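Researcher: Structure for this, please.
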Amino acid sequence: MPSGSIGSHRAFMGVSITLCVILSLSLYVGWKWYFDSLVSRTTLIELAKKAEKRVQDLENLGIKVEAAHSDPISSAPLKIMAGNAESPSAAPPSQTSQTPATLPPETAYPADSIIKELPLLESSDEVVQALTLLDQYWKTTSWKERVPMVAHADRVSPLMKDYYETQGGKDPSPGNLMSKARYQIDGTEILYFSYSSSRPTGSLEIAMLRDGPGGRFLIDWESLSGYSEMSFQEFRTQRSSKPVTMRAYVRLFDYYNFEFSDAKRYLCIKLISESGESSIYAYCERGTKLSRWLEADLATTGPTGFKGYIMKLSFPLGAQSNQCVQLEQVVAQRWLKLP
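Model: Predicted structure, token format:
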């Protein structure tokens, strides 16, 4: 073979090898960039999901976050809606001769409060003890044996007796533990646990309160059970014209009938019992600060979502039905009522 042909062949092979190396490097760099980008994208999506879940957990507890923080253990204060008083205009009169002004107008709905999300050390004695206490609670069938496990036992014990023995109430069954956190709300420290549940919101929120300075955390039984002064059934049967404190899942609704048939005059909200088995409708007059507050706070619930409220409700005098009531007061926009 001529030397010129050999040289040309070697040159061709050299160029080909060089091109292959360059192509391989380009493919390696390209694929590495692609997979790194994919990992980064997946990480961002996971972080976004965690942030969304954190906000959802806060809202399930009744905490409206106005400025979310990316740091999950940030101690910076967040502005929320809590169960203290603001000063709206006077409560609106009802369409009947009865007026719901049995409560001071300044307490018609909750005012702003401050929450801090505190660092949570999952392996700490406090968290381990709290989870152990919850496990004991679920395994205990007698409400009397549960009394030492709940916060403010002296006050709550008669409520437990009423709930279990008179109202025939039952505790919800917890599913898997979905999340946990630690908060300080208006100076009160709580541990928060969220379990999957068959409740209307799909979750069971449990708050645990510290039993005195440096004490252990005990269960806030009222918010866990969704305790109300009357069961929905009893409330509808008695048609009390005096305000009754009720816990319920709430959302905006469009049902107008009986004394509250004027949709232009009244704002309607639907109330679902803690078990999801009963419902009633509550009304307040449009154009008031209370109605505007409700519309703003419930705007994110959509057609199927709910928020947990503590409210005072009453029937109009001579009520025409057992399902349409007056909304006297929103005590708190969560089932946890702090001192």
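Researcher: Any notable elements?
Model: Residues 1-60 form one domain. The first helix runs from residue 3 to 60.
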